[in-house]
Specification:
Blueprint lengths: L7 H21 L5 E3 L5 E3 H17 L4 E4 L5 E2 L4 E9 L1 H5 L6 E8 L2 E9 L4 E6 L4 E3 L2 E3 L12 E4 L1 H4 L10 E3 L4 H10 L4 E4 L4 H14 L2 E4 L4 E2 L1 H6 L7 E4 L1 H10 L9
Parallel strand pairs: 3-5, 11-12, 11-13
Antiparallel strand pairs: 1-2, 3-4, 5-6, 6-7, 7-8, 8-9, 9-10, 13-16, 14-15, 14-16
């Protein structure tokens, strides 16, 4: 069992930082200026400013740690720990006024995800976890409920890229796409979704959520039958094969039934 105690002070610092950044984001998100990146996704002045703020605070507190994120190249020290930052996960949602976007700060120690904090400012919620210390939302411990199968009304989230690759007829429940990997992973941990599905997500999309989901009792597995540890999930980014996040028995059901989309012959 991993001892979470050595990370307690780091967790308190990052929770306070995420709460501070969430306040800044809520004060500015209605006036953002979106631009298209090379991949046609949106980035805004708020994304840039928040990542710089997070990097500044982490760099001052942890000068030996490496700092990585969505918008800027690696900076920081040369130590074995690396912070993975997504200043706004769900920028497209934010730009269009959909209240599902998040701020994500994850810590990897020698490649292993060990701490994750995710703030969802529009909902006023803060999720966090350290390895061995459980998953939490605003002080409430999160533990997933498992089952051998899915009910027709269970919410199963499938990201846009995955939805274009996985045959939706092979998936159970009611299919959703929330437009934010961080929201999706925390919502699985909280029981709002029974599973989520990724394809193409980068390390900053999943580093913090992997800790939270795993500590809530979720497992990770690919459509072709490979079960992944949180370390393997993050290391194998961008996610190259449709990959599910779910409680273990539900994950097994998904992996057994899901298939890739094949167009009908004309």
């Amino acid at each position: 069992m991993h001892d979470p105690a050595p990370l307690a002070a780091d967790l308190d610092f990052v929770k306070a930082l995420a709460a501070e950044v969430a306040i800044v984001a809520l004060g500015r998100f209605r006036g953002v200026t979106p631009q298209e990146k090379e991949n046609q996704s949106f980035v805004t002045d708020l994304d840039h400013d928040l990542e710089q703020l997070i990097r500044q605070r982490l760099g001052q507190r942890f000068p030996n740690d490496r700092l990585t994120g969505e918008e800027y190249a690696e900076t920081g020290g040369g130590g074995p720990r690396r912070w993975s930052i997504d200043p706004i996960d769900g920028t497209g949602n934010m730009v269009h006024g959909l209240p599902l976007w998040a701020i994500s700060i994850g810590l990897l120690d020698q490649g292993e995800p060990v701490l994750g904090v995710i703030a969802i400012p529009p909902l006023g919620e803060l999720f966090w976890a350290v390895k061995g210390g459980g998953a939490w939302r605003d002080g409430e411990r999160l533990t997933v409920r498992d089952a051998e199968s899915f009910h027709v009304q269970d919410n199963v989230c499938v990201g846009t890229n995955a939805l274009r690759a996985v045959d939706p007829r092979s998936l159970p429940g009611r299919l959703r796409d929330l437009g934010s990997a961080c929201c999706e992973m925390t919502f699985v941990a909280a029981g709002r979704l029974q599973a989520c599905t990724f394809l193409g997500e980068a390390a900053h999309d999943v580093a913090a959520g992997a800790v939270i989901a795993a500590e809530a009792g979720c497992h990770f597995g690919t459509i072709d039958g490979q079960v992944l540890s949180p370390t393997e999930l993050v290391a194998n980014t961008p996610v190259a094969r449709p990959t599910f996040v779910a409680p273990p028995r539900r994950l097994a059901a998904l992996m057994a039934g899901a298939r890739l989309f094949k167009p009908e012959p004309s």
